[in-house]
Design a protein that fits this description.
Strand content: under 5%
Shape: elongated
Helix content: 55-70%
Radius of gyration: 15 Å
Order of helices and strands: HHH
Distance between the termini: 29 Å
């Protein structure tokens, strides 16, 4: 399990800095956190997903495409 509170603290510190670079980095940290949560949950339900669906899985592709 990932430590979401640590990530939130990092993002808040970056946003408090207020520079364009730190805000961009904060956004990237947010995206990475979302991907970590998705992969973490995927590990939990791995046994319930078919191998065919796992091969096709792409975290950056919207579910409606």
């Amino acid at each position: 399990m990932i430590d979401v509170q640590k990530i939130i603290s990092t993002v808040e510190a970056l946003l408090a800095d207020g520079t364009p670079q730190s805000i961009t980095y904060a956004a990237l940290e947010c995206r990475l956190a979302i991907e970590k949560v998705c992969y973490d949950r995927l590990k939990v339900v791995h046994d319930y997903i078919s191998p065919h669906d796992l091969r096709r899985y792409r975290p950056w592709v919207a579910w409606w495409t």
